[in-house]
Amino acid sequence: MAALTAAPARPRKLLASRKTRVGILYALPVVVYLLVLFVYPIISTLFLSLKNADGSLTLHWYVDALTGVNLSVLITTLRISAETALLSLVFGFILANAISRLRPLWAGLAMLIVVVPHFISALVRTYGWIILLGDKGLVNETLAWAPGAPYQLLYNELGVVIGTTSMMLPYTVLLLYGVMRGVDRGLLAAAASMGAGRVTIFRRVYLPLVAPGLASAGLLSFILSLGYYITPALMGGPNQTMIATLINQQVTKENQWNGAAAQGVLLLLLTLAGLLLVKLVSSLGASAKKRSAS
Description:
This protein is an all-alpha fold.
């Protein structure tokens, strides 16, 4: 009896080992791809940021990145990214909320209008904003009757924030639309049937349900804005230099690869911190939904 029961065990082990070998064989190209195109460049950049000209290890480049002009550039980057995320949330919330209340056909058409410009080159869209916001552009021509016209809408922080917000808005609308479309409208109707007003329903029922989506969309806009280059470089002035522009200047004009590598590592750490926050917010939102469902 023991021999009969032990006989099938060996074929099962052989089959499992064969599946393991096949899985490793299929995964090997992916692993090599990630190592060559992602892991190796990151490690190389990290070592470059820790090297002196003579090859010795140092933290000088990180100290330099967090002091003086470089620190002010980092603060400017964080400030403009935060302003972009906030404005993207405000306008994205209004748009996504309006679209989520439409019938599926009209909602699909509206989302198409929001998303299609995103497939146009960022450079083309940026030049479009430069034409619109210039002294002789459509905006200033329309507001020619207003006191103080023409307004300076380019080569300052206002112009940069307008441009970056327009670039981030499709991401925000897409995220918020998915969250808002999934809200159970029966909960809102139940709150209304119990005598709650519109403001109370929005504040006590609707807003908590979409809050995780708001946090994720805001953090995503903030993360994407941190490393944005084209729009701030073309629509901003010297006081709106962001970290991506600084890295480009250090590499192309100053030939300072070590300092640029340190700036890049700092940008990577900020991005990773933002992604961890997004994951934390998503997990908290999922647990909150489970609690409300139970």
